[in-house]
Design a protein that fits this description.
4 copies of one chain form a homotetramer.
Chain A (H helix, E strand, L loop, with lengths): L3 E6 L5 H6 L6 E6 L7 H5 L3 E2 L3 H6 L3 E4 L4 H9 L13 E4 L5 H13 L3 E4 L2 E2 L2 H6 L3 E5 L2 H11 L5 E6 L3 H29 L4 H10 L5 H11 L9 H18 L4 H15 L11 H7 L3
Parallel strand pairs in A: 1-2, 1-4, 2-3, 4-5, 5-6, 8-9
Antiparallel strand pairs in A: 7-8
């Protein structure tokens, strides 16, 4: 794969950082974002700005997408000036957004019908991981397409795990965010009781980190809570969107998720209480409030 | 602390392994267990068998306890032939069982009234950790008593965290088991949907272990589930007991725990379905059954 | 309103019985159903069978709809041969299906754009109520349209409650089915414990019916459970659909529903366990199974 | 049963009104209450005030109890100056408090061992029902004792339902309060969404009361919520106590109660937020707060 023309759609918290990694020799980067102002920083560093998703796709061999939710992805691809209009044999589309397995399958199918192909490649890792190229990528679609795109995916992260046919990676990603939801909720429920019992936060975190159930995630989010630093790494609005997608998939697959259902309502309350754009760690405030703190 | 006479009450999965660590030069070990048969293996290796908790305490400088539940602890200490009857100035009692913060406070108080002292020292780590002396210990009580007993506690594990006054370590331990409950339930809810969606278990575990929320605990329990190996490391009956203690403490402290409440009912169903004596990983079977698998 | 041409789309459990009430002098009834066989009984009694929703609307002054779910309603109205194609000044559409407030608003808006008007009129009451014209109707839309259609609505039930603008009746209906979900789940959770405690079912029902919280609903569903009669009055599939719509509306309105979220997972399990087409009272079997009965 | 000496222990919201019904010709009433001030109103109307539960029992043929929680009942009966000390052949004890089935069995057993007998007779109905003698009574214990005490029970309410052996009535009562919890929580979750959707409260209540799931309970509590009148009929503290007893019984019987578990946490939050002594209808404020209202 010599000089490669990359298109990147969606320059949010994650997308802007991921796109920037293609400002390297060997790639020509075009970008598109719904509100064009967000394109300026990358334009200043040499990226081309496309007028529409369709135009983005016309001027690129591979288009990556990183958007907030399924409706945005749907518009990006299927709108009259959408990416799909420029799909042609050899064209590749990589969806890194977290969307429903069903939409993932529909997208990939649509590109194939035009002789192109697509890969779902949801990522995990914070905005720092996006900037540093240390994300974990899960892929779904044809194995050959995964193999073909590996060099490009590697620009985003060293760990790329092929999950199976179209939709598989979406399920794996949703399960991952489910586990995050459980870990964070469990930590926060425990913290609030411990706080009411007069225990120092540090002691609790020290024990957690020394135990068999330790995880860097507890250090990361526990530390943020200790500092009351709720600046967004992963917003509550986005996690609730993913919890909804997971519960919807569980509904389709007919698998009860009683724990997630309970947890979702707590995060839902966080949105109602105005924390939708705060980091997911801010959910602790809902539990504190419920506890009369 | 030269040659030390150690008493150990409760020779279950954890206790028998912890007690065995005092079969070293420098300690004289006496043991007691409700059903005397369980004393035989340690007796064969040189331990003395006491006829009652009281007698155990009379022949020891420090008595450790590792029992299944609060009522058993209550009997061990407060019964007419209980440990407390032999408490005297200088005598020390170490409670490693997971009990309620309230019972912990009452125990310690009772020993102090007799001029002795007690420490709560709940542990975390599996039966392997107990055997190898790699448990994590949380302690609560007087700081000086903690300091004084450190050399003995170190026989059980290298990591000993002082949590605060009597009852503090019990809260920390319960929060720890709460977090375990969330992690395991989240993993299992995710696994069942993923299985219904046709995803290989290994892929899911590979992603989890590569992500920021990775934890050795997921490898440990995920592996057991993959092998359908539900041999008891930590029984469902015991975890439900701890979930009940946590919810009770949350009630006393007036802190809602909506996630734990939902999760507890799933583990409760596991008991109803005959898995009480299986390892906590067996909870996956409740979710599978609910999902019609 | 002299001789009125009525169209009825959707001849399921409720629709077939509601439609039959217009086989009276004073009405000309046309019917349409996706699978045409279901039209035969009404055709035998004098109803005309329309070839498409559009044709149904062309030959009627007012079209009623009673369908299983929002996608079916969406197709009925918006498809190329849908009802909307035949909308014209003076034409009226009455949606009795339980759909999302949002779809309700969209439907009504679409008819208004064509100079026609529509009313949402979800109903409550079992299939018996549908047959006997004793349903309760909640209406949403223009008050004048409600007033104009009152004589026709009265054919279905004597109690017709105007709830407000478009979407209001959908919310009220969803809240009603939420309350049903709570009552039935509460009854069943209680019954299972009582059964495990050896209490006769009749005693429990007798106490419930004598208490301040008595409701005909408990007699109705409690009796069915006592007889193990799970023949469908209101299917689990349909109630779960409504629970999903309610949780979705709660999401849009940002109002947590922790109880409903927990209850939904139990009904979800009922679907997974093969009871989707049974009556909602069959949910008791999920709880029995969870309890190891 | 000619002139009968009645003792009444516990003069709270319910007890004071129930006791007053024995200020009729044909009964001699003695009363006891932990804080003696509460005895004054009844003393002014002719009741004797006993110095201790034991003395109360010595001067009465039948002692009724109406206390706040199981520990209070335990003290009343088993304390050194408790009722049990005065138990003798022919003496009868009637427990109207809501306690655990287990405590109920222990109480009754203890009286029998002394040649006396006891009946559990938990009641349902508000303080108005207590005052007017329109309570519903559930009884458990020996059928002959139930028959023997019928004339006295009838003073409290016309509807007296024999549930079975000792402990049965406690279970039935707990199930009843479980159903109340579900009905109230369901109503409140629905009300909050409806309020956020701009629906008038009255419309919602009108629909509920017209539907098959109507219940006087919805009128009673719905009306209180509409008026924001949270004056205590049945306190949140007491209902949470009963929810705890129910979940404990469900634990013993190994029957999962996922809905009640979720609901309990909401009422628990009500306590944490300072509504413990308000009426159970005040739980709506927790949901409003969670929803950011």
């Amino acid at each position: 794969m010599s000089s490669k023309r990359i298109g990147f759609a969606g320059l949010g918290l994650m997308g802007s950082r991921m796109a920037a990694r293609f400002l390297e020799p060997g790639y020509e980067l075009s970008v598109w974002n719904r509100s064009v102002e967000k394109c300026a920083p990358l334009q200043a560093k040499g990226a081309r700005v496309a007028a529409s998703p369709r135009e983005l796709a016309e001027s690129a061999d591979v288009v990556f997408s990183s958007l907030a939710d399924p409706p945005a992805v749907e518009r990006l691809v299927f709108a009259p000036d959408g990416v799909l209009q420029a799909a042609r044999p050899g064209f590749r589309y990589v969806e890194t957004s977290t969307i429903s397995p069903d939409l993932s399958r529909r997208l990939i199918e649509a590109f194939r019908e035009r002789g192109a192909d697509a890969l779902e490649a949801p990522v995990t890792g914070s905005k720092n991981g996006a900037a540093q190229g240390t994300l974990v990528l899960m892929t779904g679609g044809r194995r050959e397409t995964h193999d073909e795109l590996l060099p490009l995916l590697a620009v985003l992260g060293p760990k790329i795990i092929y999950c199976g046919e179209a939709g598989s990676a979406a399920v794996v990603k949703l399960v991952g965010n489910t586990i995050i939801s459980f870990m964070l909720e469990g930590l926060c429920e425990g913290l609030v009781v411990a706080r009411k019992a007069g225990l120092p936060f540090e002691t609790l975190l020290e024990v957690i980190m020394a135990s068999g159930y330790a995880s860097p995630y507890f250090t990361f989010k526990g530390g943020a809570i200790a500092r009351r630093d709720f600046e967004q790494h992963f917003s509550i609005d986005l996690l609730v969107k993913d919890q909804n997608l997971m519960l919807q998939e569980a509904h389709v697959r007919q698998a009860p998720m009683p724990g997630l259902a309970a947890i979702r309502e707590v995060f839902q309350a966080a949105r109602a209480q105005g924390h939708g754009q705060a980091d997911i760690a801010a959910v602790v405030q809902v539990l504190e409030r419920a506890a009369g703190l």
